Amino acid sequence: MRRTLPPLGALRAFEAAARHMSFQAAATELGVTPTAVSHQVRALEIACGRPLFRRRPRPLTLTEAGERLFPVLQAGFDGFAAAVSALREADDRRPLRVTTTNAFAHRWLVPRLYAWREARPDIPLEVIGTDAALDLHAGEADLTIRYARAAPPGLVAREILRDVFWPMASPALLARGTPIRRPADLLQHPLIHMGWGEGMPDAPTWRRWLAEARRIDPGISEVGNAGELHFREELHAIEAVVAGQGIAVCSDVLAARELQNGDIVRAFGLALPGFGFYLAHLPDHPRRSVIDVFTEWVRTTTTSVGDQQA
């Protein structure tokens, strides 16, 4: 039965012309010329085997066949529009799914969500904290905040933050030892290591920091003198620093709150470059307008006075 349907464009042109009783008004609504509407209607009349409009004398009126066809098409297009609108409204109410690393979600994003809820209570968020890179093309998330040296390829990406790694310690820990005047003085305290995985020679590790420090303090050892602690998760390493268990090379973005509060301090003025935090999404994402709102909120948040440290 559906094989006999005329082209959709011809049906739309006829429905609009019949609703307005004007080819000109139909053309304006559809964004085409009146001639194009006339040609589409003529094609539909040929497909139906009878005229649908009386074109003379003016004004334009429907024939008996047109009067039979018009209400059916009008109801159909109204139903299509209502169904699409309902789907769009349901999609607008669906939480915006944001994926990022566990560390960034815990240390930066989640503590600021109260500000998002105050600014946009109409747009709920679903935060997916995972160190795995979810597939945006497969619909596993709407947008991602990825931690990388460069912007992820194939996505619309914007760098929102870039961190720096400093040796950090609690003031109480530093007070228990001799003053820190040279890099080697750090080794009187336990060194806290965090897992970076293999294949990252430029990761901001203690090994790399000590290699840099050797340029200004050639006699510094390659290992700590007071023991070492190892953590797989950066979150746990920062917590150990706050607890006074040792010194770690930490991100100034992830440890920003403790730096601001004075719970930890920079133990020495030699830093390692970190990575960028990139907010990225598919270029043709259907919820682009909502994503743009969230992107602007993140941009504003990262440049506000309270986030200068971050």
UniProtKB/TrEMBL annotation:
<dbReference type="InterPro" id="IPR058163">
    <property type="entry name" value="LysR-type_TF_proteobact-type"/>
</dbReference>
<dbReference type="InterPro" id="IPR036388">
    <property type="entry name" value="WH-like_DNA-bd_sf"/>
</dbReference>
<dbReference type="InterPro" id="IPR005119">
    <property type="entry name" value="LysR_subst-bd"/>
</dbReference>
<dbReference type="Pfam" id="PF03466">
    <property type="entry name" value="LysR_substrate"/>
</dbReference>
<keyword id="KW-0805">Transcription regulation</keyword>
<dbReference type="InterPro" id="IPR036390">
    <property type="entry name" value="WH_DNA-bd_sf"/>
</dbReference>
<protein>
    <submittedName>
        <fullName>LysR family transcriptional regulator</fullName>
    </submittedName>
</protein>
<feature type="domain" description="HTH lysR-type">
    <location>
        <begin position="6"/>
        <end position="63"/>
    </location>
</feature>
<dbReference type="Pfam" id="PF00126">
    <property type="entry name" value="HTH_1"/>
</dbReference>
<dbReference type="InterPro" id="IPR000847">
    <property type="entry name" value="LysR_HTH_N"/>
</dbReference>
<keyword id="KW-0238">DNA-binding</keyword>
<comment type="similarity">
    <text>Belongs to the LysR transcriptional regulatory family.</text>
</comment>
<keyword id="KW-0804">Transcription</keyword>
